[in-house]
TrEMBL record:
Residues 356-433 form the Amidohydrolase domain. Its cofactor is Zn(2+). It comes from Chelatococcus composti. Residues 63-248 form the Dihydroorotase catalytic domain. It catalyses: (S)-dihydroorotate + H2O = N-carbamoyl-L-aspartate + H(+). Zn(2+) 2 binds at residue 192. The gene is pyrC. Pathway: Pyrimidine metabolism; UMP biosynthesis via de novo pathway; (S)-dihydroorotate from bicarbonate: step 3/3. One of its GO terms (biological process) is 'de novo' UMP biosynthetic process. Keywords: Hydrolase, Metal-binding, Pyrimidine biosynthesis, Zinc. This is Dihydroorotase. Catalyzes the reversible cyclization of carbamoyl aspartate to dihydroorotate. It holds the Pfam family DHOase.
Length: 440
């Protein structure tokens, strides 16, 4: 596993904190001691506890101290498209948004389909990134959907999961073989469930609004049919399977049924599909051209409800930086994607403030559950766990200015949005990597 290199740091004592542990669901006042990059002691219901004489004391002032987020789906340009994003800029955006672990997708140039490229990414992240970076390797060679990659060698090199990123494996026989192979290695398959033939030339959710805007639509069935096929293959193979992003009520029902059958199935949802709907596209706003597309408000409410009930396991940023040349185009011609590492938590807090989900529930979907799926020790407040922590004011209001984002690309769907909740400090292995008070 990759983590930023740290020098010996002074112990840290966090006092007067509102501790939130998503792994246990516990939330209470308390204090915490961090030593040697790990949590050394937690004092629940005891806001002040003295630490070693040499310790640095951080008075949290009653604000939330929680595990850093684990984002299972982020596209980073490096290698090959550093003009869009680098590991350095992505990690800075992540730290500002409270994300301390990032799983980067294999859609790079070259594609992450060889152990040497996994090794390159880990070494590059070690040298330039300020948060934990874990590569996901390609499911098929060249992301072409025809020939499986060498799962065993890629896992040995450090790949934490297998996916073709924004592409779906349309060949059912190839997908069956990949699932069988993954089962034998204990590997996790992350799949983008969208039939490209049904998507066709579609650019937004199919329906009345698309017709009124004069834009070709993407039917929900493009997602539903691919997901249903995959679930049948999971029944056949018994492999661990994660639907990367679901976006509609029927997909939720399919996942819920599969879980009731005891299948080893999990799923995620993009923060965009949780908090925005198709009407937000407004006057052809290309920053909201996404895959899967923003759906109807009814579908959005269905995925919010599924998240609250635990049917949807994780929330992802689906961070996908695009430069102005690919976004400053007519809507139908613009590239899919939006940046999201820096805004995922603030946007998700909309659901907390609206009463749809508890704060611990949101952190479970953004930290402890993704960490557990990936086999990482992060995402929890426990003695011995990595001191990947964030100090959060969940109520601080602000208006997002895309010019202030740390990402190299600025294609955020939340530009000029009113948000509540800011990450004030971020720590990775006990080392401070973000402090809003020091921002210029």
């Amino acid at each position: 596993m990759n983590s930023p290199t740290t020098s010996e740091a002074r112990p840290l004592v966090f006092t007067n904190a509102r501790l939130v542990d998503p792994a246990s669901g516990r939330e209470a006042p308390g204090a915490m001691l961090v030593q040697n990059g790990a949590i050394a002691d937690i004092a629940w219901d005891e806001p002040v506890r003295p630490g070693p004489a040499e310790a640095e004391v951080v008075d949290c002032g009653g604000l939330v101290l929680a595990p850093g987020l684990v984002d299972m789906r982020a596209f980073v340009g490096e290698p090959g498209a550093e003009h869009r994003e680098t590991l350095k800029t992505a990690s800075e955006a992540a730290a500002a948004g409270g994300v301390t672990t990032v799983v980067c997708m294999p859609d790079t140039d070259p594609v992450v389909d060889e152990p040497s490229i996994v090794d390159f990414l880990l070494r590059r992240a070690r040298d330039t990134a300020i948060v934990n970076i874990h590569p996901a390797a390609a499911l098929t060679k060249g992301l072409e959907g025809r020939e499986m990659t060498e799962f065993g060698l890629l896992m040995e090199a450090g790949a934490v999961a297998f996916t073709d990123g924004a592409r779906s494996v349309t060949n059912a026989q190839v997908m069956r073989r990949a699932l069988t192979y993954a089962r034998d290695f204990g590997a996790l398959i992350l799949h983008h469930t969208e039939d490209p033939d049904l998507v066709g030339s579609g650019v937004m959710n199919e329906g009345e609004l698309a017709t009124r805007l004069g834009l070709p639509g993407v039917p929900r069935e493009a997602e539903i049919i691919m997901l249903e096929r995959d679930l049948r293959l999971v029944r056949l193979t018994g492999a661990r399977y994660h639907a990367a992003m679901v976006s509609c009520a029927t997909s939720v029902a399919l996942i819920e049924r599969a879980k009731a059958e005891g299948l080893p199935v999990t799923c995620g949802v993009s923060i965009n599909n949780l908090t925005l709907n198709e009407t937000d596209i407004g006057d052809y706003r290309t920053f909201l051209k996404l895959s899967p597309p923003l759906r109807s408000e009814e579908d959005r409410l269905a995925v919010v409800d599924a998240l609250a009930r635990g049917v949807i396991d994780v929330v992802v940023s689906d961070h996908n930086p695009q430069d102005v040349e690919t976004k400053r185009l007519p809507f139908a011609e613009a590239a899919d994607g939006a940046v999201g590492l820096e805004t995922m938590l603030s946007a998700g807090l909309r659901l907390v403030h609206a009463g749809h989900i508890s704060l611990a529930g949101l952190f479970a979907a953004m930290a402890s559950r993704p960490a557990a799926l990936l086999g990482l020790p992060a995402g929890r407040l426990a003695v011995g766990a990595p001191a990947d922590l964030i100090l959060l004011d969940p109520d601080e209001p602000y208006v997002l200015d895309k010019a202030n984002l740390h990402s190299r690309s600025k294609n955020t769907p939340f530009d000029e949005a009113r948000l509540e909740g800011r990450v004030l400090k971020t720590f990775v292995a006990g080392r401070k990597v973000h402090d809003i008070s020091l921002a210029s």
